[in-house]
Amino acid sequence: MELKVIEMDKGLLKLEVVGEDHTFCNIIRKELWQDKDIEIAGYAIKHALVSNPILVVESKDPKKALVETSNRLKKKNDEFLKKFESI
Length: 87
What we know:
The chain is of the alpha+beta class. Helix content is 40%, strand content 31%.
């Protein structure tokens, strides 16, 4: 995965997420909405076969919001792995 910054202002961040698709971006989008400071969280893919997703985050601090979202998802994945391994 590669991240390319398309636009970054005080309260707005647009990233091209190279090499990913709806699966990855949808979980990021969904988890971003758990943050009370998020004003916009979404993504768009112009063409599923030839385009990379563009992730859009608008909040007081979009970079911090993405870091916190990533940490929450990592924790959930770790919990899932631990429970799965105990089966």
